[in-house]
Specification:
Helix content is 57%, strand content 12%. By secondary structure, the protein is an alpha+beta fold.
Length: 592
Amino acid sequence: MSEYFHPYRDVTFALRELVGFDALCESAGLSEVNGELAEAILEEAGKFGSEVWAPLNKVGDQNGAKMTDVGVQESPGFAEVYRSFVESGWPTLTFPEAFGGQALPNVLGTAVNEIWQSANLAFGLCPLLTQGAGAALEHHADEALKEIWLPKLVSGEWTGTMNLTEPDAGSDLAAVKTRAVPEGDHYLITGQKIFITWGDHQMTDNIVHLVLARLPDAPAGVKGISLFVVPKFLLDENGEPGQANDVKCVSIEHKLGIHGSPTCTMSFGDNGGAVGYMVGEPNQGLAYMFTMMNHARQAVGLQGLAISERSYQQAVEYARERVQGTRKDGSKIPIIEFPDVRRMLMQMRASIEAMRGLALLAAAEVDREQYADDGEQAKVHGERVELFTPIVKGWLTELSQEVTYLGVQIHGGMGFVEETGAAQHYRDARILTIYEGTTGIQALDLVGRKIVRNQGVAMNALLDEIDAFTQQLEADAELAAMAVRLKSALEAAREATRWLLEEGSQSSSAPGAISVPFMMLMGYLCGGWVSCRMAHSAARQLASGQGDSAFLNAKVTTTRFYCEHLLPRTQGLLDTILSGSESVMGLPESQF
């Protein structure tokens, strides 16, 4: 099935009631940006996604990218749609006006990106990587480099990639061996990179690779990595692509999913060296690349939400159409009437609404940091961004595995059959917990860098904010039961944080032993918090007789389900943290 419909009302409700989009724009001094403009943009993006991108989703799965004599050939129809995407100006939304962007808030760009990723996840990876490459250059390149490369990345006329991983350097970037030797005003790059998403295609005139490499005199380890722009084609005197650079894709992977997205092995310098240009200062490449990686991590978390939404829409449609059994009057029974099918659909929906709320709230914190009035406020919002990023990437992508699994389960045996399309969502989702840092890496980042390192200051500030809201929720008799569940989950998070800070200071292995359960606990808590906030807003509108009562009641009902079925998971995760860590740390290698 190729149908996809943008959940416009859910998204605009979250922007308005959870994010406070108008207030955000006002405080940022964006006088021409407001909720009305955002809703108009989302309406048009929704049409473009459902009518233009979505029909190619199955095409890309069945006719994936292929190696040819001229390099990688993208899936049929992708090039035409990409040109239309660029001509419509969609890539420019959040980039600075100085380079041809529209300078719209990051949170609005995130809401639009959900559409591209739901409509066609494999295709959506191409602009996602380009946005990240552009962000890295915007923040760290000198003005000359920006003027050359940013405008056409911003417009989407050229695409961008991120080249980190090597055959002997996966997550351990200290092992990077690719070399960069200075020659005049540039460097000659030699080495091989693997798992490079959209590393080659024929959709644009050029591809701008951001490549991690070492200078000849670089110190060992991660402190000796520099970042370089390495284009597919060198530019002529008019700034247009001319001579081919010494870089090419030598193979593409045959993967479980996202077949429409070429995953390339890139070879640099087979014929003397690929020309590259250093970004920023020598030996600062890893820090620079983290700008792109952190952008990508929130974006991949968003992909977890997006593919879950696509799976849910198909599951609902199938459950309404599929009949099983006969009533006494002879009429057939659609399976959506079966209690267990309804349970699974509600679990999918409740998960998705929580995921969307957290993804948008995290994206808005990026805006609040950027537009803060003073350095202290910027620091507070920056710390919240750092705290949210591994949770968004880790929890949303892990939860997407369960949501897309349920999508297959609701289809029954037909879910296992490729023709229905349910299996594609399940397969496509599987990579999300792996690339841009595995779940384990996100969890280690959360407990180590974001909590233990600053003694839980940012974490406790978040927990205090959740606590303050819980007290508001308790005052509403209709929502008091939700408040009890949320408060219980909050106390589980406080206890887990106390344990982490105490044990983490005494044992170097303790944080790692409980990092994933801790991250998942925080995900379920934050998901419950944002869901309850939206339910609280819906209940206020219902009480005042405003809005669509059916839509608002559905918000409250969905949140109630989340609180009853998903929030209790925090207690089991707390038990694992408090009692299960020793069984992990104490295991001898021979146990395996």
